[in-house]
Specification:
Two copies of one chain form a homodimer. Chain A is built from twelve helices and 21 strands. By secondary structure, chain A is of the alpha+beta class. Chain A has two domains: 307 residues, Bira Bifunctional Protein, Domain 2 (BirA Bifunctional Protein, domain 2), CATH 3.30.930.10; 89 residues, Rossmann fold (3-Layer(aba) Sandwich). Chains A and B meet through strand 1, strand 2, helix 2, strand 3 and strand 4 of A and strand 1, strand 2, helix 2, strand 3 and strand 4 of B.
């Protein structure tokens, strides 16, 4: 995309009302706009990154049998009264609203109840199981305080998959599958080395649930990492009994601050019982469906990645989710023709390029390229044209290469 | 996709609580699920169709310079008080909600106010104009009655583009461009011959606005169509003065019932003035930005298309937006191997196929194929294998061809 077509601009100053680093950087770089605390618009560059995160998650969910659909935000009180989660005392993040005739609705903070009710239409036999519907959907949560930028929103995107199994055995098999899929996702998002499957409290049904925690100095959680086993334990279940059960020793664990980037829950019969989701098994007996739920917040993950990799010049996107691979700078009028040619040739090959074709000084262009965090910066200047060698800088480590145009094509057009 | 992997099922009976034909059919065929009046989940087949409609609109918006972003549902009262549209007496479709501390929010029924305010960050000079941000976003409208299925939702998807121009001349040029883009969209959606650019009341600023109206017996609007000129006039501005201005005669117009599928508005300075969106022009004078807004509801259009083309057997999707091109039926165990082979070969070529691999009678499969409205039905049966010729039926006209497997590959793999 050409900068002249993009309607956003970068800003030198941090927004006065924003305390979180991810939001400060994303706002300054023109990726998001703050409507109010915890409520962010996604501008073209930000939407591009978010879409790429969504697509990686989608591919991994489809690979393990996930089927995509989309539930609604508006919710019926009756559906949630069945599990006693309509009450604000029980679930304190409800945004509730109503029609002028007084009929009340809620805005879904999660979707266990409606999906369980929906599946009553489609599950009647063991042959209908297992089933793995999922969605990317906007959740609403009435958080009183919301100061962590994209990492704790009042309105945010969520991938939620629900598993419906005929028994615990069928469930456990999928639970292992999706654990692996989650690790593949965080790997592809560039968080591989920092993200651990973490044992956490299981709630009323299971002994453990599992979180995926990314080590980060801004983390609000404390975890204990076993690098040897590639797992971690949340502080909330960090005790001798659990250590013994997992076969790890205190002295091998490293205490870290971490951010929760995903979670997977065994729900068991909690929702199927309350909402009457049953099936006839092969033994002709009627049984309750065994459920699980599995979340990742793409916008939260985007906030974490922004914050995690940033340096003092700005954002640094992993290549897989960067809004473009190359930031193409043109310096000087006589460099325009070649810059256009390179831009067209690369984009025609499907390589995403941000072409800074503005009549702006080189300093501004360098600064914007760094702030936006595009993986490679290519400079086409009159001097470089004379020399036949062009500067290509890698954002994440500042490495500089002097390449011919031919070299550049060879490097990116694989 | 294999039917055995899809979690939805068709139903023989019309849902008892649903009066609109589009929702009845879409529910029976397993495309959508009704949460409550005007609030529908999109199940995998329905989401597939909706995504295709969205993609066609996106391509046409990008072609004319649109840049995609995504605004929020939650709205700040202050933003809307500036135009006096926060008041329920002025805008009666607000869903309003609040935090436990009393702080009030609204759920956006449209987005003129927040986009105008947002653009104050990015528009300061005539060089920043024109600009055409757009989004696909969920709108919320607190309609008291909602009985038209997907055609009038309380929660529904909307494409809204906003134009920001330096003057009326720049605006008018784009207004013509997007009018043409809209006609291309409805053409690609299969509504070409039935959809007319329709002159309607312009509101406070412009003489006319334009609606895109599709002729349909279920339409709630009355329009007068000039087939010769390819335009129509809404009843609300159907008078001698307008007829004279448009150069059409009463006797050349045909009265029709129609459904509004899109609209385009010249907004002028209404929002830029109220919210202070100004720029410095080339003459160094400060001026207000000239605005327009342009809507299409993809879910509404989907409802209309469902209803418009349906026959007594069920849905009939235009090829461009059908959830699959081919409904592949396998009849008899010994047809399984070839059916699998054909399924794999077609899907590997990127052709979408619904493969009915269920252990169900042929009658059920025929009925489901018709109800779902897939453009072609291909039957692989033991009898056909013996004869070397396979029945391919075109859904929309019932045309039957007897083809070899080679013929079938040639027909679909272009």
């Amino acid at each position: 995309m050409k900068m002249s077509q993009m309607f956003t601009k970068t800003s030198k100053n941090n927004p006065a009302d924003e305390v979180s680093k991810n939001a400060q950087l994303l706002i300054r770089a023109g990726f998001v706009h703050k409507e109010m605390a915890g409520v962010y618009d996604f501008l073209p560059l930000g939407k591009n990154v978010l879409d790429k995160i969504v697509q990686i998650i989608r591919e991994e969910m489809n690979k393990i049998g996930g089927v995509e659909m989309s539930l609604t935000a508006l919710q019926n009180p009756e559906t949630w009264q069945a599990t006693n989660r309509w009450d604000d005392e029980v679930m304190d993040v409800w945004f509730k609203t109503k029609l002028s005739n007084g009929r009340e609705f809620g805005l879904a903070p999660t979707h266990e109840e409606p999906i369980t009710k929906l599946m009553r239409n489609f599950i009647s036999s063991y042959k209908d199981l297992p089933s793995y519907p999922y969605q990317f959907q906007t959740k609403f949560r009435a958080e009183l305080r919301s100061k962590s930028g994209l990492m704790r929103g009042r309105e945010f995107l969520m991938k939620d998959l629900y598993s419906f199994s005929k028994d615990k055995e069928q469930h456990d098999e999928f639970y292992e599958e999706i654990s692996k899929a989650y690790l593949r996702i965080f790997d592809r998002l560039g968080l591989g080395g920092y993200t651990f499957k973490t044992f956490a409290s299981g709630g009323s049904f299971a002994k453990f649930s599992h979180e995926f925690q990314t080590i980060s100095p801004v983390g609000e959680d404390t975890i204990y990492v076993s690098h040897e086993k590639g797992i971690a334990i949340n502080q909330e279940v960090y005790n001798d009994e659990v250590l013994a059960e997992l076969g790890v020793k205190k002295e091998d664990l490293v205490e870290e601050k971490a951010v929760e980037v995903g979670n997977i829950f065994t729900l068991g019969y909690k929702f199927s019982e309350a909402l009457g989701l049953k099936f006839i098994d092969s033994d002709e007996k009627e049984k309750l469906v065994f459920m699980g739920s599995y979340g990742i917040g793409p916008s939260r993950v985007m906030g974490l990645i922004a914050e995690h990799f940033a340096d003092d010049k700005g954002l640094v996107w992993p290549e897989n989710i960067a809004p473009a691979k190359i930031y193409l700078m043109q310096i000087g009028e006589d460099a325009k023709e070649l810059a256009e040619e390179v831009y067209n040739k690369l984009t025609n090959q499907g390589i995403e390029v941000i072409y800074d074709d503005r009549n702006t000084g080189a300093g501004q262009k360098f600064a914007d390229s760094d702030l936006m965090g595009i993986p490679y910066r290519l400079t086409i200047s009159s001097r470089a044209i004379k020399q036949g060698r062009f500067e290509l800088v890698t954002r994440k480590n500042g490495e500089i290469e002097e390449l011919t145009i031919e070299d550049i094509y060879n490097k990116f057009m694989k």
